[in-house]
Amino acid sequence: MDPGVTPSSPAPARTFALDRARRALEAVAGRDELVVLHLDAPAIDPASWLRCEPDEAAVLWEPPGGPALAGRGAACTVQGRGELRFAEVASKAGRLWPRVREHGIGDAAPPRSVLIGGFSFAPGSGPSALGDAWFVLPEWRYARAERRGWLSLAVRGEACATSRGREAWLAALERELERIGTLAGAGRSEPPRPVSSDPATGAPTDAWLRGVGAALSAIERGEASKVVLARTLEVPGPVAPPGVVCARLARLAPESARFALHAGRATFLGATPERLVARRGRQVRTEALAGTARAAASDAGERLLASEKDLREHAVVVQAIRAALQPVCTELEVSQTPALRTLRDVQHLATPIRGTLASPMHLLELAERLHPTPAVCGEPREVAARLLAAHEEVPRGWYAGVVGAFDAAGDGELWVALRSALVGAEGARLHAGAGLVAGSDARAEWEETNLKLRRMREALGAPP
Asked: 62, 139, 176, 226: which is the annotated catalytic residue?
């Protein structure tokens, strides 16, 4: 990373920054490398900068605590297919990073370059443009951390081989900086108020009742201890644009990780409360999130903590995560009892889990060990997956898959793609699931899915 340099002349800061950007482009001209330029920019909400154009990649990634990232275009795309998709993405990314050269142009270190994307719930189920696994290093990226902002440009050496090509990139950089300045000057614009939506979305369907019955029968026979059945809700268009939906989600679900992945003509977006895994060096963080109650009732939390059914459902998830991580960790801290995670509409039982890796492991290796957890699939995994394939009316696609970002060191964080929607020109498709254990009631679980669907319907502006 280049050290920050303060201009000693009275030349405008932008002119100085563009001169440094010009030299960085000249240094890689014609080479088989990617240069990433990071320039200081005003602090804005990345969702206001996000644009999802047909057939152009676009991403948004904002985990709690940041940094918040939005990207457009693709300097490089990394994809994977089939059962080995986690390893394939890690391998391809490993070949990419040595060719990336980063230049920070400013007085503070920007967030490092990351690949942003994720994985479908199961191979072969995702929309064609995203496929089984899709990550992108954006050509243009806006990042915000606390009160600072940065604009980044990633360019291949062959794309700036000529003076004319370099000047074109510099002119585009200046236009983007001006656009960000305009957005910052306009202040925070509140998106149009979402349409108020009733959480009720009809009575349980026959397909839902059959699916719950089949799952509970398998549990009664001892074939499974938990099955997470998901339902689908189709919201006819038009719905709000992705940038507006993401801005609304920041207000409706501030405690969640906000994301959007746009490829082709579809956008997969949402605000998920559940982290799959985070890695920094040899430190690993994850959590078990299972067991749900409505947040409105004053005693709902106490009843959830005392619910034998919900505690059993939660324990299955804790045990599975422990079994996946213990073989690769020298230390593993698991809380003895769950705490409450209170969201706007629902409360969950949550158990934080921390570990120290015995040897270095890529974030994606850890994700492959954990996904899908019993919180979104069931236990045993293979039995639950067969029941879902047989009884869920619509394939999940990327719902309950994995979204997030990772860097050249294999550090980063990935979250479970819940509270999400696949948005296209004709409307949106939403999914919501409920964990079934012995004693579950089909109608009560249907009501739980209604609660989980509520905020996304509201963010889309769906009619009641």
From this structure: 226
